[in-house]
Amino acid sequence: TTTSTTTTVTTTVTSTTTTTTSTSTFTTTTVTTTSTTTTSTTTTTSTTTTSTSTVTSTTTTTTTTSTVTSTSTSTTTTSTSTTTTTTFTSTTTTSTTTSTTTITTTTTTSTTTTTSTITSTTTTSTTTTTTTCRPQVAILTDEITRGYCKVTTTNFVDRSVNSKSCDGATDGFVHRALANGMYAHCDAWCLYDWESPDKISYHWNKQKKCFEYGSDCQGQKEQALVTSYKDVLCEAEKMCTPVAPVLSEAVIYRYCEKLSTNGEDRSPKAKGCHDSYTPYVRRSLANKMFSHCGAWCLYDYDQPDTVAYHWNSDTSCWQRGSGCIGHAEQKLSLERKATFCEADLCIPVQSLLSDTLMSSYCESTTVDYSPHAKTCDSALSNQVHLALANKMFSSCSSTCLFGFDDPSQVAFIWNTAGKCWKKTDSCGTAAERAAAVTRKSKFCKA
User: Fold this and answer.
1) What is the DSSP string of 209-269?
2) β pairing state of 420-424 and 411-415
3) Contact 137/179 with Cβ under 8 angstroms?
């Protein structure tokens, strides 16, 4: 008898799919006034072990690791709120294996890594502080002074429109400084120049009742304070340049450290090579109608495009001529002339009639305007010459000449037959006489 025994061993390993879901929510709110960096790290580990064994043990292990790193940086006056939600799902599937007389063991390990990046947005707020600027003032008025001080005169100091400089040449600069409040307080006797407060100053002269140029106020504590006023000025177009009506040392020292740099004379004693134009030379120097200290070319204040002077070192005087016309320095003087404030300057009085003077008035005449001009009455010769020297006629072809001393009452008419000037009660038109009276009122006082 044959017995056959068949033994069948069947091993079945069944693995069930296991799903692990992990949700992590991070909320970070940071409000700080200094730079701060916050780093958080979260690690989640989930392990599932299933073991079923009939003959042989089969082990299935699933390991899931999740690492989330978040970094949040905040800057000054920045509020940052960050919310992060991380969800991960891990699924492990184990297959079923069936064998006869064979044991098969299958081990599956699954590792899942999830990295989450958090983006931080930084908002910066900026605060700007605005300071009220000081307006620039071109012309002094009593109302402006009362804006700084309640009255125009305090502590004997006159800051009204009638205030003046002691030399008479720098009135315009003193008024500009007063208009812009270039003094420390309403009782101050020190006044600092508008253009150069660190270098130029005036002090109140109680006896003379005027502002005197000098060094008495230099180096005072008030100077630094007043100089700082210019740091808070409102932006504005460049103001006109004050006109100096006469020449003084004070006004020259505004431009140059010395009264003479290269042998030339810029002092109040400077003169023209002819007396007739000395007043015009001095007015031109007073208003810096030269390109630089040491220049030998000087351009006429009234007519810088056509009249110029050059320094004559042999005779130590300023010679009128054409030598400086067309020079590069002339352009600078023309540009400067355009910057001056309007000014009704007095007309220099001419005491002597000359061909040089007359040629500055007229290129040609139909009657005799020369120094040799005769009067029908020789006793009136000086009156006629003085009237001619000061251009008391309406045009270079006029036959009527008005008296210098009293143009409203005195006149001379050209006598063609006698070729002389004859005194008359009636001459020219009413408009011509009125023009002569107006001109007379504009002459500088002796």
Assistant:
1) TEEEESSTTTT-HHHHHHHHGGGGBPP-PPPPBPP-SS--HHHHTTT-SSS-SSS---STT
2) antiparallel
3) yes
Residue 267 gets which letter from DSSP? S
Q: How far is CA 110 from the centre of its chain?
A: 75
Answer whether 0.85 is exceeded by the pTM: no
Q: Which of 111, 93, 101 is nearest to 14 (CA)?
A: 93
Residue 311 bridge partners (DSSP): 318
Q: Give the chain's radius of gyration (CA, Å).
A: 50
Q: Which residues pair with 41 in a beta bridge?
A: 69
How far is it, in rounded angstroms, from Cα 155 to Cα 189?
8
DSSP letter string, 138-198 = SS--HHHHHHHSSSSEETTEE-STT--BSSSSSHHHHHHHHHTT-SSSTT--EEE-SS-TT
Structure tokens belonging to residue 379: 């006793």
> Could you give the CA distance from residue 357 to residue 14 in angstroms, rounded to a whole number?
132
385, 401 in Cβ contact below 8 A? no
- Distance of CA 412 to CAs 194, 317, 360, 387, 390, Å? 50, 36, 22, 10, 14
**Contact indicator for 440, 387 with CB cutoff of 8 Å:** no
How far is CA 297 from its chain centroid?
A: 31
Rounded CA gap, 340 and 304, in Å?
A: 13
Rounded CA-CA distance 392/432 in Å is 10
**How many degrees, rounded to 5, is the angle at CA 304 between CA 302 and CA 308?**
110
Pair of tokens at residue 261: 């740099």
- Measured CA to CA in angstroms, residue 191 lies from 183, 215, 225, 256, 341 at distances of 5, 11, 12, 21, 21
Q: In whole angstroms, how far apart are CA 177 and each of 159, 161, 204, 407?
A: 10, 12, 13, 40
What is the per-residue pLDDT across 91-103, written as a single tens digit (0 to 9) for each? 333 333 333 333 3
What would the pLDDT profile of 298-330 be if each residue is shown by its tens digit? Answer: 999 999 999 999 999 999 999 999 999 999 999
